[in-house]
Amino acid sequence: xxxxxRGARTGRGWDxxxxxxxxxARPGDDPEGWSGPPEDEMPSARRPAxxxxxxxxxxxxxxxxxxxxxxxxxxxxxxxxxxxxREICLRQLAVRPRTRAELAAAMRAxxxxxxVAEAVLDRYDEVGMIDDAAFSRAWVSSRHHGKGLASxxxxxxxxxxxxxxxxxxxxxxxxxxxxQAQTAYELAVRKLRTTRGEPDAVFRRVVGAxxxxxxxxxVAVRAVKDALAARSAxxxxxxxxxxxxxxxxxxQ
Length: 252
Fold this sequence. Notes:
Elements lengths: L66 H12 L2 H15 L4 H10 L4 H14 L4 H16 L3 H10 L4 H8 L4 H18 L4 H14 L4 H15 L1 H8 L12
Helix pairs in contact: 2-4, 3-4, 5-7, 6-7, 8-9, 8-10, 9-10, 10-11
Subcellular location: Cytoplasm
Function: Modulates RecA activity.
Protein name: Regulatory protein RecX
């Protein structure tokens, strides 16, 4: 019997290996390499999310009216209103200390109910997270030494922040007249260095600058006179010719 030649292919005869039985088709098989419909024909639930859009194909993620925005709005509506109020307050306090009135205004702007805001603010009062008296004392010290503001201007700023008049009075009591006079003098010295013009005009401009920082006219004039006298005898003589009462203004 003639042997089979090496390297010859097996035929279809008696010595051919039986082919493997065909595997039953399973769901998901890709006959003939088919990889599914084009992406634009896929159902929206299965379509991959684009770089700038949501998987639903309804436009950019988070746009008004999109499913994501609607879900976010629904979650917001379901949140505990006290939790929402606390979150608003904490964001405000993370920037700088706030008065009770400032926090109440921030919550009102976000449509927090008044009773919820009051409950949260009362709790913050109890634990010391808000303290209008401490806030006012720190404000007076910082703004006077940092900006040179006098009691009048400081009181106006605190009133705009909703601090009670009694609390303001107590805070301003720590700023005595002697301290304010010294601060006014130092401001006058610095302002005279940079103000140019006729002596009379310079005098009035510096006095006006101090008045805008809240110093009464008499205090401002005296500070400028002292600063001029320290600079030269000629300037001091000119300053003495002006009547301080002409610059005095009533308390506001």
